[in-house]
């Protein structure tokens, strides 16, 4: 027995930030951003809103898609926690009317959805839960320096969620084998230095104040690009081998939307034609753990993904971390995410 996807939902905050909006304060241009990332606009949480609020909305839609009102557990993947303590998931569960179920957060940045799927699959396979609501949610624009032209244009806010239930490996929606990996030796290529136990601001207690820029994301773009293409390509091949699929068997490649050039390069490395590559980064930016479920929801809504299609999922993110899996897409309803 293992996890079977039986519902999906997504949510984007209403505020749209276009490249032209960013250009009014940054030394950049729409042409520069599009050429390097493929992004034209992204969403931003309103003042006073947080990851919790996005997660609740996506969770509601996934539960409606699955025609469920209860689950045994809620798992939330995020890198933009509401607070260092406690976890966001229990509060999300409460707001969804799932008050006493098991609920916890996990973080693996942009690989969070793949790591979370594997975790939820394990909860089901071991009998801990018969059903799980798994949400990837990010209000990551709050952690990006608005004056940094290398990072500010890339990230957007949003949430995507799926419902998994106990089922058989032969069912549509059954999760395939997982390939997961990490390389902590390169952790500093993508990191927020301050905010954790390693570096804390404690003025008046004998510690130096942390420089402002260290509260924001630091990114080494060029080596990350190389690592992303290499790791996602190799991981995807291992996932395909585990599923006993040839590359030609794949109907749709759904890669984490970090940069359109990365996704296209991975497809080229695998020998996948670009018409089999799913893309929505132009409209939402990089939404980290929310990226893949938002893209899946979008593909179903646009008719690019249909029941019976063979789907390859792959992601790469901070840590460094990466992961891939496969599934045959089930017949599940979706709501349009505007």
UniProtKB/TrEMBL annotation:
It is found in: Cytoplasm. Pfam families: ACP_syn_III, ACP_syn_III_C. Pathway: Lipid metabolism; fatty acid biosynthesis. Residues 257-261 are annotated as: ACP-binding. Keywords: Acyltransferase, Cytoplasm, Fatty acid biosynthesis, Fatty acid metabolism, Lipid biosynthesis, Lipid metabolism, Multifunctional enzyme, Transferase. One of its GO terms (cellular component) is cytoplasm. It is an enzyme of class 2 (transferase). SUPFAM superfamilies: Thiolase-like (SSF53901). Residues 240-329 form the Beta-ketoacyl-[acyl-carrier-protein] synthase III C-terminal domain. Its EC number is 2.3.1.180. Residues 104-184 form the Beta-ketoacyl-[acyl-carrier-protein] synthase III N-terminal domain. It catalyses: malonyl-[ACP] + acetyl-CoA + H(+) = 3-oxobutanoyl-[ACP] + CO2 + CoA. The keyword Zinc does not apply. Catalyzes the condensation reaction of fatty acid synthesis by the addition to an acyl acceptor of two carbons from malonyl-ACP. Catalyzes the first condensation reaction which initiates fatty acid synthesis and may therefore play a role in governing the total rate of fatty acid production. Possesses both acetoacetyl-ACP synthase and acetyl transacylase activities. Its substrate specificity determines the biosynthesis of branched-chain and/or straight-chain of fatty acids. NCBIfam families: fabH, PRK09352.1. Belongs to the thiolase-like superfamily. FabH family. Homodimer. This is Beta-ketoacyl-[acyl-carrier-protein] synthase III. It comes from Kutzneria buriramensis. The lineage of its organism: Bacteria, Bacillati, Actinomycetota, Actinomycetes, Pseudonocardiales.
């Amino acid at each position: 027995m293992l996890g079977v996807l039986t519902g999906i939902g997504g949510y984007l905050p209403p505020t749209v930030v276009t490249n032209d909006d960013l250009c009014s304060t940054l030394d950049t241009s729409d042409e520069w951003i599009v050429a390097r990332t493929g992004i034209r606009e992204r969403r931003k949480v309103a003042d006073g809103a947080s990851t919790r609020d996005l997660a609740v909305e996506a969770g509601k839609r996934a539960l409606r898609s699955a025609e469920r009102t209860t689950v045994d557990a809620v798992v939330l993947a995020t890198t933009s926690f509401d607070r260092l303590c406690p976890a966001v998931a229990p509060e999300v569960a409460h707001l969804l009317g799932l008050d006493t179920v098991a609920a916890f957060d996990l973080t693996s940045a942009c690989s969070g959805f793949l790591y979370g799927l594997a975790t939820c699959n394990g909860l089901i396979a071991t009998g801990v839960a018969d059903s799980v609501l798994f949400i990837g949610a990010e209000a990551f624009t709050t952690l990006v320096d608005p004056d940094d032209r290398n990072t500010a244009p890339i990230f957007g806010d949003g949430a995507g969620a799926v419902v998994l239930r106990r089922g058989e490996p032969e069912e549509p929606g059954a999760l395939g084998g997982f390939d997961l990996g990490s390389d902590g030796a390169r952790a500093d290529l993508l990191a927020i230095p301050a905010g954790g136990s390693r570096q804390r601001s404690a003025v008046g207690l004998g510690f130096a104040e942390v420089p402002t820029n260290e509260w924001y994301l630091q990114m080494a773009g060029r080596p990350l690009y190389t690592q992303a293409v290499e790791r996602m390509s190799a991981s995807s091949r291992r996932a395909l081998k585990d599923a006993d699929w040839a590359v030609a068997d794949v109907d749709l490649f759904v890669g984490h939307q970090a940069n359109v050039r990365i996704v296209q390069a991975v497809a080229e490395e695998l020998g996948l034609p670009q018409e089999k590559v799913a893309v929505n980064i132009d409209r939402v930016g990089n939404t980290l753990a929310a990226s893949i479920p938002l893209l899946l929801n979008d593909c179903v809504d646009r008719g690019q993904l249909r029941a019976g299609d063979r789907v390859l999922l792959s992601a790469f993110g901070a840590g460094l971390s990466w992961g891939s899996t496969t599934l045959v897409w089930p017949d599940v309803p979706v709501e349009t995410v505007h």
